[in-house]
Amino acid sequence: MDETEESERMPDAPATAENPWPVGLLGAKIRDYIDRLGTVWVEGEITQWGLSAGNVYGKLKDLNHDVTVGFTIWSSVKARIPDDLKHGDHVVALVKANYWLKGGSLTLQVLQMKHVGLGDLLERLERLRTQLAGEGLFDVARKKRLPFLPHCIGLVTGKDSDAEKDVLRNAQLRWPAVTFRVVHAAVQGDRTVPEVLSALKRLDADPEVDVIIVARGGGDFQNLLGFSDERLVRAVAVCETPVVSAIGHEADRPLLDDVADLRASTPTDAAKRVVPDVTEELARVRQAHARLGTRLASYLSTETAKIGQIRSRPALASADWIVDIRAQELTRFVSRGSELVERALDHAARETVDLRNHLRALSPQRTLDRGYAIAQSADGHVLRAAENAPAGTPFTLTLASGDIDAHSDGASADPVVHRG
Q1: In this structure, what are the phi and psi dihedrals at residue 229, rounded to the nearest 5 degrees?
Q2: pLDDT digits (tens, 9 = 90+) for 8-66
Q3: pTM score, two decimals?
Q4: Residues forming beta bridges with residue 93, ordered by sequence position
Q5: What CATH class does 3-120 carry?
Q6: Which of 29, 207, 212, 224 has the maximum number of C-beta atoms within 10 A of its C-beta?
């Protein structure tokens, strides 16, 4: 009786510290549980492919996560699968999970395997494109304008790649003073997305970087799938720094082209569209300077001619007539003003004489001049009745000329005034 049979005959009692399960029993339970999964279709990328005695031993990696499982293709099955399968291929496989008791390892027994069809990939890509477009990630309104002259350009590309050389060479030929912050990243394979995401995050956080170029330089459709990854597309959409896509793949272009603020057909095109040509700009400046000079000369010539025409008019040929006319008008105005002032003064003098005569006619002095007198008490009040001055009351008589002090003898039928 081997270890497996013995473990299968052991009682299925709960495991405790006092009554633990044998390793064989645990392994058997794991094997039985895995056997109940049956066969399943899985999708992934072949990261290891080795032949041994006609059998294939390899590993399959998840497309989006760092998860890998081993698989085995027996020689009988290998004869029925495509013979061009290799490391790096994107495949789907019908597998059955097997748990090897003696080794305590899990492997996948491959029953069928095939390449993921191009049509399937395109269909998935288009569904994702439609979803992201519906969210507004591709809208022109959200795209940021590139600076006219970036002082520092961030470049994400493969190390020592032709794309890197093309961007640097063409940009520096156009504007020698431009500087670059280059971050190398994988541009194909399973490391593409995490490394490009890391490079984007680093450059977007750099305050000196004015624009970011992601450059590859074309390639096979499947090798460009990383640039259609949803994580990468969403990361570019939220970048504060303008992003230029220079993947250089015209047909079946990746989603990065749609979400980027500018799409360039090649890395060389990206350099030309991001960096202005110093020679062309200087030529434009010279042309603008020449146009300004021509327009200014034309304007001055036109205005000079207008001034000449105005000066040649009879009204400005001799200015003496203006002074003569104004002098005559001024003489008339002065004469008229003097006449009006004299009239006003004569009229005022006459009114003054009339008012003076009228005032004199009403003056108490005129009454006194006719022989009347004014009696005033000691406090200055005018005495209007005899009872206001009882006997012994001193008063003053104001005459036409001078005053007389007097005393009252009291009221009488025929009053007599005694002068003091």
Answers
A1: -65, 135
A2: 444 567 888 888 988 888 888 888 888 888 899 998 888 889 999 989 999 998 887 88
A3: 0.49
A4: 42, 113
A5: mainly beta
A6: 212
